[in-house]
Design goal:
Radius of gyration: 27 Å
Strand order of the largest sheet: 8-9-10-12-14-16-18
Helix content: under 10%
Shape: globular
Number of strands: 44
Length: 512
C-alpha cells in the first residue's frame, strides 16, 4: 500500500525565466527556475540546486548536468526523481566534483549521501556502500522490486520517507551507528520485524506507517530513548514522551493512550482501520500531523483540556467520526485537520483558536452545526468548503478576514450573519451557496472578493454598506437585487456590471 492520504498533495511550481540572480528578502522562499526537465534554485554561492525533475515517462537513464542555464549544479534537494517510474540508472560526467554514480545509484559527494536509487531497477537486494553517511529523504521511494537492504555502520541518518512504498521490502539490517530515523522512513513496506539499535537518539514521525505485516519492533531494555511497551513504540526525552507508533497490525476497537504520554506523534495511528474509540489522557499536550488520518472506523475521540495543538491533517479522512469536542485549551488547529470527516455533524471552535486553517473542515458533508466563538480572528481558504449540510453560520466580530472559498459550495447554507469587525470577504467565499437567502454585511467590511456570492441564486437582496471600497468581478452574479447607498462605490459597481439595485429608502414614499 502506497502512502496515499485523502489529501492530494499539490506541487506548486513558479516559473520565472530570468538569467540574473534575484535579491531575496530575509525569509523569502527561493525562486524556482526551469531548464529542460530540471527545476532548480540558486544558492547563495551562485550555484544551482536541483529541486524537481519533470519526468517524460520515457527515459530510463537520467544524466545529472554539470550546468543549468550556465550555473554549476552543486547539489540536489531530497530525491527530485522519485516520481519517475522508468529510471533504471543515473549518470554523471567523469570527474564530477559534486556527484557520483555507483551501480546506477546517485550519490552526493559533499555529505556522502545516497540521493536516489532508481525506481525501476530490477535488483531484489541492495547493500549501501561502506562510507556513506546519509540515506536521503525518499532515496528509495517506491522501489517495488527491493526485498532486502543492508545498511553499513558508516550510515548515521535515514531520511524522511527513505524507503516509503517499497512494497516488497521484508528485511532491513540497520547500522549500529545509526543516530536518526526520519518520519515514514519505512512506510508501506512489507517488513515483518525490525531491530532498532541503541545508537538511535532521535526519531521522526511514525517510521512504520502502513506497515501491514510488521509484527515486531525490537528495542533493547536499556535503550537510552526508545521503549516498546505493549507493542507501542515510544520515544522519551527531557522535553517529551511521544507515542511514535501504534502498530498497523493491531485489531483493537478501543484504545486508551498511556497516562505518561505527553504527545501523540505524526502519523502515530494513521490508517488503523479497526479503531472505533480512543481516549487521550490529560498528560497529552499535542496531537501531531496526520496522527489519526485514515482511521476509517473511528467514531469517538475524547480530547482533554491539556491539549494545546492539533496538527495538520490530524483527523483527515476519519469517515465515521460523528462528533468531537475541541477544548478551550487548544490554540492551534492545523490545515486539513478534519478534511473529509463525512459523518461529523457538529463542531464548536473555541475562541482560544486564533485561526481556522485552510481546508480544515472541507468535505464534512454531514456537518449541520458550526459554532465559531469570539476570539477566532481568521477563517482560512476553503475552511468549510463543500459542507453540504450546513444551514446557517454566524461569524463573530473577532474575525477580520474570511478566506478564499471558505464556504464555497455549501449548498444547504441559508443564512449567514457576519458581525461587525470583519474587514474582508475573500474571493468565492460563498460561491455556489445556492440556498443562501440572507446575508448580513457589516459596516466594517471594506473589500469583497471576486465571485464571493456568485451562484447564490436564492439570494434576493443584499445590502452593501458604504464602507465597501472594493468589489471583485462577478461578486454578486445571480443575485437578484443589491441595496446600495446613493453615490457609493457599491452603486458605481452595480452600474458598471449591469446589476439590478435599489436604495435603502426607495419605498419610503409609501409612508407619506
Amino acid at each position: 500500500m502506497k502512502k496515499n492520504r485523502v489529501l492530494v498533495f499539490l506541487l506548486a511550481l513558479v516559473v520565472l525565466m530570468t538569467a540574473a540572480l534575484p535579491a531575496m528578502a530575509e525569509g523569502e522562499e527561493p525562486k524556482w527556475y526551469e531548464c529542460e526537465n530540471f527545476w532548480y534554485i540558486l544558492l547563495d554561492d551562485g550555484t544551482a540546486e536541483i529541486v524537481y525533475y519533470n519526468s517524460d515517462d520515457i527515459s530510463t537513464k537520467i544524466k545529472i548536468p554539470d550546468q543549468l542555464d550556465g550555473y554549476t549544479v552543486s547539489s540536489v534537494s531530497g530525491n527530485p526523481f522519485r516520481s519517475d517510474k522508468q529510471i533504471i540508472n543515473f549518470d554523471v560526467a567523469p570527474g564530477n566534483p559534486y556527484f557520483a554514480v555507483i551501480d546506477g545509484v546517485l550519490f552526493s559527494k559533499a555529505d556522502k549521501r545516497l540521493v536516489a536509487y532508481p525506481r525501476n531497477a530490477a535488483a531484489e537486494s541492495y547493500s549501501v556502500p561502506q562510507g556513506i553517511r546519509i540515506i536521503g529523504d525518499s532515496a528509495f521511494y517506491d522501489c517495488e522490486s527491493l526485498q532486502s537492504i543492508t545498511i553499513p555502520d558508516s550510515v548515521t541518518s535515514i531520511g524522511n520517507s527513505a524507503f516509503n512504498g517499497c512494497e516488497a521490502l521484508q528485511s532491513v539490517t540497520l547500522s549500529e551507528n545509526l543516530a536518526f530515523i526520519g518520519g515514514d522512513a519505512f512506510g508501506s513496506t512489507a517488513l515483518l520485524s525490525i531491530t532498532i539499535p541503541d545508537s538511535v537518539a532521535s526519531i521522526g514521525g511514525n517510521p512504520f506507517w502502513s506497515c501491514n505485516k510488521l509484527s515486531e519492533i525490537i528495542v533493547s531494555s536499556n535503550h537510552p530513548c526508545l521503549e516498546v511497551r505493549d507493542g507501542l513504540l515510544i520515544y522519551k526525552s527531557d522535553e517529551e514522551i511521544r507515542l511514535v507508533t501504534y502498530p498497523y497490525t493491531f485489531t483493537a476497537t478501543e484504545f486508551t493512550v498511556p497516562e505518561d504520554i505527553t504527545s501523540i506523534g505524526d502519523s502515530a495511528f494513521s490508517g488503523c482501520k479497526s479503531l472505533q474509540s480512543i481516549t487521550i489522557p490529560g498528560s497529552v499536550a499535542s496531537i501531531g500531523e496526520w496522527a489519526f488520518s485514515g482511521c476509517d472506523a473511528l467514531q469517538s475521540v475524547t480530547i482533554p483540556g491539556s491539549v494545546t495543538s492539533i496538527g495538520y491533517g490530524a483527523f483527515n479522512g476519519c469517515d465515521a467520526l460523528q462528533s468531537i469536542t475541541i477544548p478551550g485549551s487548544v490554540a492551534s488547529i492545523g490545515e486539513w485537520a478534519f478534511f473529509g470527516c463525512e459523518a461529523l455533524q457538529s463542531v464548536t471552535i473555541p475562541g482560544s483558536v486564533a485561526s481556522i486553517g485552510e481546508w480544515t473542515f472541507s468535505g464534512c458533508e454531514a456537518l449541520q452545526s458550526v459554532t465559531i466563538e469570539n476570539g477566532v480572528t481568521f477563517i482560512g481558504d476553503g475552511a468549510f468548503r463543500s459542507c453540504t449540510s450546513l444551514q446557517s453560520v454566524t461569524i463573530p466580530g473577532s474575525v477580520t478576514s474570511i478566506g478564499y472559498g471558505a464556504f464555497d459550495s455549501c449548498e444547504s447554507l441559508q443564512s449567514v450573519t457576519i458581525e461587525n469587525g470583519v474587514t474582508s470577504i475573500g474571493g468565492s467565499a460563498f460561491y455556489e451557496c445556492e440556498s443562501l437567502q440572507s446575508v448580513t454585511i457589516p459596516d466594517s467590511v471594506t473589500s469583497i472578493g471576486g465571485s464571493a456570492f456568485y451562484g447564490c441564486e436564492s439570494l434576493q437582496s443584499v445590502t452593501i454598506p458604504d464602507s465597501v471600497t472594493s468589489i471583485g468581478y462577478f461578486a454578486f452574479d445571480d443575485c437578484e437585487s443589491l441595496t446600495v447607498t446613493q453615490g457609493s462605490y457599491a452603486e458605481t459597481y452595480a452600474i458598471e456590471n449591469d446589476l439590478t439595485y435599489t436604495y435603502p429608502n426607495s419605498n419610503d414614499w409609501l409612508l407619506d
